[in-house]
Amino acid sequence: MSGPSYVAVDWGTSSFRLWLMGAGGEVFGERRSDEGMTGAARTGFAPVLQSHLNALGAAASLPVVICGMAGARQGWIETGYVDTPAHLSEILKGAVVVSGQPRDIRILPGIAQRDAAAPDVMRGEETLLLGALGLDAPGEALVCMPGTHSKWVRLRGGTVERFATFMTGELFSVVARDTILSHAVAGAEEAVDADAFRLAVAEAFAVPALSANLLFRVRSRQLLFGGSAQAARETISGTLIGAELAAGLAERERATPVTLIASGRLQRLYQIALEGLSIPLNVMDAEEAVRRGLAGAAAAIWNN
Amino acid sequence: MSGPSYVAVDWGTSSFRLWLMGAGGEVFGERRSDEGMTGAARTGFAPVLQSHLNALGAAASLPVVICGMAGARQGWIETGYVDTPAHLSEILKGAVVVSGQPRDIRILPGIAQRDAAAPDVMRGEETLLLGALGLDAPGEALVCMPGTHSKWVRLRGGTVERFATFMTGELFSVVARDTILSHAVAGAEEAVDADAFRLAVAEAFAVPALSANLLFRVRSRQLLFGGSAQAARETISGTLIGAELAAGLAERERATPVTLIASGRLQRLYQIALEGLSIPLNVMDAEEAVRRGLAGAAAAIWNN
């Protein structure tokens, strides 16, 4: 086993993750921080990257492949988008070199759906897809990638045909933090109230138009009947996720399993929600998927 | 025409409105401020009320009737709720005297729907209903009262049978102010982009489950196709209102007109939205309705 041969970076809006990778996919070192695009746009992208490489003692010759918001207009350099229908191999071809750097640094492009009736963009999730499905996954796939901005993607034979972004995670944050419901969830502990969550998913899934009412009921229920902060939080979460599933699963061909790419608490919640609706599932870890996607990109860029 | 005979106050969460009223409904003076329940809970309710009465030179003998959040648990005194099915006359009977005050001050109760499957509460809107419909409106009515927390109410013969609160207005505020969409709406002027609004209403009304996706499209559309801040703001507004209408109108019996009680910009938006869906409408001004409701309460309390 030789040493590190490249560096993989997932550079999101508010998070930075870096891995020192071996040619065979081994992880020699890892760094995480909250120096996402928003912070790095102020302090400079190159110094942030270099500080993490220094901390790991990375050789000056190691090349770097990056996915995510570092390629956005407000990022390090704008890498543009590959348009749908987009074969995942086009992502690899669209990598852009960051010029004027002492080492070889490439940033992957995103995917755009330039449909005036349903415009959409992704940046970072294309690399998760690459890692989770590989370049030439045969047949149909319906992929759910939960998060601040959840993505639902329909692929056929490695080509992204259509996708839709739902602001579910961001809505949860502002509803729980900045509305009248903040009182209802105050002091909620980490434990998941799976019953409250499952019920809220089922209600919003059945009648998504009621979502804004189901949210207010969280407050009314506490006023009239009491109830825990956990139950309140999970009801907010389940309501927003249930409505998302109603739209996302409408894209599903009968019996097609959903590929869920997620980690941690979100993986757990979406798994409970989808299993509660009897949807067959393939679950993949999001962090492993992005690392694998970046490894695939590195192989395509530097091993040819 | 004699002078003022009582004082009417609409005391909301974040607003205070007071009218010096004549026995025949004449308005002798008016005060408005942002000393709502939240502020007055800190500074004291009695001093806020007295300062506005002093500013109008109101006689010390004038009695005061109040509706709204001043009767909430965090308000001046808790006035409780009348439970559904609630005839509007029960609101008048439920007025609570604020003790220890130099004048006769009464606060009206709210209405509670103690249904564990659909708990809900209102406080202030019961007085709007009273003013808009009167005590003994015959037949069915479906009332929409847009706002921070929009209410849809089904009445029969002056009795509130069921109602539902939608967090539409509050969702609009946090989405436009605290999410990624804040960039898209930055600098929007007051003018209403009725086309963007109408289209967004129609899309969310047709597939409410897509709401969180329709919201994200506001950003994608600006990134890929450009577009004004006004159009972005109206699309957010139309999406949230369209989903609310899909649920609210599901309660409507065929051909029953909707009674819309609203003022200003909200009245205009809901009118465009409902007319766009070819729903027959009765429109009433919200401020006039609350004043009339308080006048009805004053007559019932002091003229018997």
Can you walk through the features of this model?
The structure is a homodimer of 304-residue chains. In chain A, a hairpin with a 4-residue loop joins strand 11 (140-145) and strand 12. Chain A has a six-stranded mixed sheet with strand order 3-2-1-4-8-7, covered by helices on one side. Chain A has 304 residues and is of the alpha/beta class. Helix content of chain A is 41%, strand content 24%. In chain A, 52% of the residues are buried. Chain A has helices at residues 37-43, 45-55, 88-93, 125-133, 168-178, 182-185, 194-206, 211-225, 229-248, 264-276, 286-302; strands at residues 6-11, 16-21, 27-33, 64-68, 81-83, 86-87, 96-97, 105-107, 110-113, 120-122, 140-145, 150-156, 159-166, 258-262, 281-285. The model of chain A has no long low-confidence stretch (mean pLDDT 95). Chain A contains eleven helices and 15 strands. Chains A and B meet through strand 13, helix 5, helix 8 and helix 9 of A and strand 13, helix 5, helix 8 and helix 9 of B.
